[in-house]
Amino acid sequence: MRVPVSWLTEHLETDERFTAEQLADAFVRVGIEVEEVTPLGEVTGPVVVGRVAEIEELTEFKKPIRYCMVEVAEPDDGPDDAGEPRMRGIVCGATNFVEGDLVIVALPGAVLAGGFAISARNTYGRVSDGMICSVRELGLGDDHTGILVLPSGEAGAGDDAIELLGLDESVIELSITPDRGYAFSVRGLARELACALDVQYRDPAAIDVPVAEGDAFPVEIEDTEGCQRFVARRVTGVDPTAPTPWWVRRRLLLAGIRSISLTVDVTNYVMLETGQPMHAFDTPSLKSRIVVRRAAKGEKLTTLDDIERELDPDDIVVCDESGPVSLAGVMGGATSEVRTDSTDILLEAAIWDPASIARAVRRHRLPSEAAKRFERCVDPLLPPAALERAARLLRDHADGSIQPGRSDAGAARPLPTVTMAISLPDRVAGISYERGVTVRRLNQIGCGTEVGSADNGTPIVKVQPPSWRPDLAEPADLVEEVLRLEGYDTIPSELPAAPPGTGTTAAQRRRRTVARALAEAGYIEVLPFPFVSPAVWDSLGLAPDDSRRRTVSLLNPMEADRSELATTLLPSMLDVLVRNVSRGTRDVGLFHIGQVVLPKGRQVPVPSVGVAGRPSDSELASLHAALPQQPTHVAVVLSGHRERAGWWGPGTPASWADAVRAAQLVAEASGVTLTVRSGELAPWHPGRCAQLLVGELPVGYAGELHPKVVDRLGLPKRTCAMELKLDGLPLVERRPAPAPSPYPPVLLDVALVVDVSVPVAEVAGALRNGGGDLLEDLSLFDVFTGEQVGGGKRSLAYALRFRAPDRTLTVEEATAARDAAVAAAGARFGATLRA
Hints:
The chain is an alpha+beta fold. It has six domains: 2-40 and 171-201, 2-Layer Sandwich (Phenylalanyl-tRNA Synthetase, Chain B, domain 1), CATH 3.30.56; 47-168, CATH 2.40.50.140; 219-410, 3-Layer(bba) Sandwich (Phenylalanyl-tRNA Synthetase, Chain B, domain 3), CATH 3.50.40.10; 418-487, 2-Layer Sandwich (Phenylalanyl-tRNA Synthetase, Chain B, domain 1); 506-605 and 622-728, Bira Bifunctional Protein, Domain 2 (BirA Bifunctional Protein, domain 2, 2-Layer Sandwich), CATH 3.30.930.10; 746-833, Ferrodoxin-fold anticodon-binding domain (Alpha-Beta Plaits), CATH 3.30.70.380. The strands form 13 sheets. The protein has a seven-stranded mixed beta sheet, with helices on both faces. Strands 4, 5, 6, 7, 12 and 13 form a six-stranded antiparallel beta sheet that branches. A five-stranded mixed beta sheet has the order 16-19-22-23-24.
């Protein structure tokens, strides 16, 4: 909300002058966010009021151009020119003013908003000796559709426009949170300032409202849930040609609202001042009586923007005997709008159901300043005072006659009383406030208070929240008000002493170690969306009876098409992979460590636990029993090149072996040995899938995804993935210190011929077992098939590294260890040395 400083300080009863920065600091202290403070002092130099004396239309140009003779006053030039006004010729392209109008003229030497300097210059075949200004050029607003025209009688030619327009003040822009609907008005903001600055407050709505003498217009509320109160006041004999006073137009402009006509400007002005939105009807256009109800199915209404809208049965409408004439709280109807010749005005102020207004705004896509306030609750006691304020403005500035009647259907519903221990704010803040602070602060925000004692003798305060604060519903709300008005900065920040602990758990240390190992291997950690679509299981090619299809559904999903908790990390990881590839990243390696949700075989109902106290041990046990299992998994997905191409070579495409290696990295970081053997599980390629085991316990799968899955999900070709049950790995508590041997190694190679069906990993395991403690490392560096090794055979070449920890190993010892390793492979798989 934008509001000029002078409008705010008008309602503070103090002689002290506050700067815009001081007011902004005060707002921040009471918890209202300040977006921006904008000074209007960008305009300098001679800027005066001018009267248009003559207009010459220049018709030889493609666009409208006018040469205007404007009467302005200037300083005395000598004894023969005693301050008499003189004419200045000014070229202008705007057409919204006529001869005799008062306009704002920037004379040569002036500097307008944005640093635009004014000088006399030749243009369109004339000398333009100044500039006639618009609202935007003066820094008063963003409207640039025409020239700013002042109402007659507001000033005289030659008056200082900078002082008249108040260009020496500032505008504060505030961000109001949804729970503070009362602060969407000068009335509410000034009250907050009075509390922050500890000065007296003058309520703009505190005016004498006369007793009604009958109804202004017959009104009936059929939908009492949608409309709490409907008040109407009638003003007749309004002069439709009366201009809006400049002080009203100026405040509307600075608040960001365009001036339209006196009647509309008055309703907008009172809305900004008090927070009560209003609507003005052309009274003769209304038939019979007003009825407030929900719209009937199929009903239509042409709104003020000349669009015919089909109404929803949830919409609240204001009707007469002809049908809907206004979409309540959102926009009026075209049939009853105030026209340029309207003299009989029916002013309406109502209290609408916030939720219904919010739904109507979104349904019809009609956001407005009025709806913004109705969505956040409006003071139900305010309508009579707001209507009286608006009616008097029309009386004073449009010669209107206020009719004695006032329609007032419905009634304000009182807010419930809240009882609070008077020392509760002190206990919550952890400090002792001065005696009487709680009552004084609550009275400042408009609460009624009554101090007493509870049955046990504890001092209490019974608080009656003001009608504009429905958010004060419990003691915690009252505590917040006391604390924020006293200042959150007065509450000391004292960190409690941290009790000695055991540090991170073994599972936490393992998780960090695994994440570090994968990151060091070049994988990037991501946090994917944890929810999946029910259709994703078909895309992954899972069988109808696959246990991963059995999920836990969300009652209120964040996205309607992703309503299930994932039983595997792969869907979300593959979705992240697709998103990265679509943004131009071709070589991708990602990992994530997170929980999956596995429902139990029998669903246990979730018990209802209150919030008055800590749950009992049995209640906690019941809650835990109702929760599904949530084990931690680690997953890796990769595509493109694992080693990028460049001048050094063509690069290495990512393959199923890289996915297997990622699983081995996880196992090594966890201190366990992983067994790899051929496996088959969707969504992996059946011929390029490895099952991962710890002992004989399956803990995961790795490999290349099935081509059909790749095609259905839009993944890059040959995409690979790995998923491992991290909680399924034995938890090994180890903090090994490295013990490198200072003695040189012995490097030997061996090539074994085995059947094609024998897994490479199992051959490596046999060599490792046979080589004993002297075998420090082995790696596969070549696989060969062909006539030289025979049909159905392949040659596996391994590099073996032998080393002893306590001596220099002899060649004979290393050779004996190699032969033992080969013998073990031969005994288990029939492996023979390749000749």
